[in-house]
C-alpha cells in the first residue's frame, strides 16, 4: 500500500490499541529498513510492549537498533505498564539528533513534574519486582483468555496487551452488554463499536485485572449466559 501511496510519516502502535495485536520485532525491523530506504519517518509507540510474551526481547529501545534506523522514533508511556497514570510520564528516543533537538526546543523547560522526577529516580530499585509482576500478569492474561473463550456470546481476539478486544455475538450488542454489566454488576467495560474500521460490528474491550476481578467478570458473564438458556 505505502509503496503506491506517498507518506512522510508512518505511525505504528505495537501492541495495538484496542486490538492488542502484536507485530514481531523482526517484522518491525524489516519495516524500519523499508522506511529508511524510502526516507519515511517511522514512529513506533511501544507503550504496551512489556505486556507481550518475551517482552524483554521485544523492545526497540536499544542504541544499536536506533542507530541503525535513524528515521525511526520510538515512544513509550511509562504509565501503562508501571500503573502510574497520574504522573504523565513518557519517553521518546531516536538516533536523529536534529529532530530530538527541535523537539527539546518545543517543550517547556520543566517538562515533567516533581512526582515524575522522583519516580524516575527510584523505579530502577524495583526492577526485579517489576519483571516478576510482568511474568505474573502474562500468566494471568493467558488464563483469563481461556475463560473468556468459554463465553458463548464473545469472540475473543488474541492479545499481547493488558486488554482483550471481543466481538459481541447475538442476541447481545456491545452497548446493551456494557450497560448491563455496569448497572447489574458494577463492572465497567468499554464499548468499541463506534470506533472506525469495525464495519458496523459489535465490539467491546475488556481489561485484564487481578485474578479476583477477572473471576468476578467471568462469573457475571456466565450468569448472563444462563439467563438465555
Q: What keywords describe this structure?
A:
8 helices, 4-stranded antiparallel sheet, globular, Aspartate Aminotransferase, domain 2, Aspartate Aminotransferase, domain 1, 229 residues, alpha/beta, 16% strand, 4-stranded mixed sheet
Annotation field: number of helices: 8
Strand order of the largest sheet: 1-2-3-4
Helix content: 40-55%
Let me know the number of strands: 8
What characteristic shape results from the CA principal axes? Answer: globular
Order of helices and strands: EHEHEHEHHHEEHEEH
Q: What is the fold-level CATH name, i.e. the topology of the largest domain?
A: Aspartate Aminotransferase, domain 2
Largest sheet data: 4 strands, mixed
Supply the helix-strand structural class: alpha/beta
Count of structural domains? 2
| Mean of pLDDT | 94
User: How many angstroms does the end-to-end distance come to?
Assistant: 47 Å
- Report the C-alpha radius of gyration, rounded: 20 Å
CATH architectural type of the largest domain? 3-Layer(aba) Sandwich
CATH class of the largest domain: Alpha Beta
Percent of sequence in beta strands: 15-25%
